[in-house]
Amino acid sequence: RESSVSSRPSLSFSLVASLALPTPARAQLEPGSEPVSLGPMGGSAISIVVDPLDDDTILLIRFMDGLFRSTDGGANFLPFGAGLSPNVREILGVPGEPHGVYALDGAQIKHSSDFGATWAPLPLVASDDLKGLALPATGATLLAYDAFNVYRSADAGSSWATTAAIVPFSGNAFDSAALCANGAVAYVGTLHGGLKSTDGGA
């Protein structure tokens, strides 16, 4: 449901007080210790997941070029998987499912149960390209968001509801989300500050 206020999201999210945080010091590399690029060459590596059962198996998203896999600790990467578009933007391991992976692919969330070999869409089609997905350490709550909507699933993605909305182009937008360990508390970040829900974003 959409908010009647042009720049304030609806829902049982309450404003989180903003904190003045110190700027972290930039990490410095010792001379001669510069990291060596592993590839795949030709585009930014925008998301990486390591197989929790095999440290040498790595999934990587290359910007505008899709999913790649390495089975030798990053020495070589090859295009991999069926069911994702070249525009996939993020992959996340599924807590409690060793070979489970979620992918944000345009306005859809896709799931793989074989560590990226095959993908199937969850029954959510967002209003715009999804920007992020929040997962708890345990439990079935998922929280996804695009620029102007927050979507929640209480059953591991089998069904979804829009639980917060911002009027498009009103000067505000959703920009981040997080769930506590069991999914009971949700946080959403907007351009105007943080919001908190004590019912998991419902």
Spell out the key features of this protein.
globular; four-stranded antiparallel sheet; 37% strand; mainly beta; disordered N terminus; 202 residues; single chain
Describe the overall structure:
- The protein has strands at residues 14-16, 45-50, 58-62, 66-70, 78-79, 90-93, 101-105, 108-112, 120-125, 132-134, 142-145, 149-153, 161-165, 174-179, 186-190, 193-197.
- The chain is built from no helices and 16 strands.
- The protein is mainly β and 202 residues long.
- The strands form 4 sheets. A 4-stranded antiparallel β-sheet has the order 1-16-15-14, with no helix packed on it.
- The chain is 0% helix and 37% strand.
- The radius of gyration is 18 Å and the shape is globular.
Largest sheet: 4 strands, antiparallel
Helix/strand-derived category reads: mainly beta
Count of separate DSSP helical elements: 0
Radius of gyration: 18 Å
- Between the first and last Cα atoms, what is the distance in angstroms? 12 Å
SSE pattern, N- to C-terminal: EEEEEEEEEEEEEEEE
For the secondary structure, the number of strands is: 16
**Helicity level:** under 10%
Note the overall shape. Answer: globular
Which residues form runs of ≥5 with pLDDT under 50? 1-6
Q: Report the sheet-strand fraction.
A: 35-45%
In the sheet with the most strands, the strands line up as 1-16-15-14
| Average pLDDT metric | 85
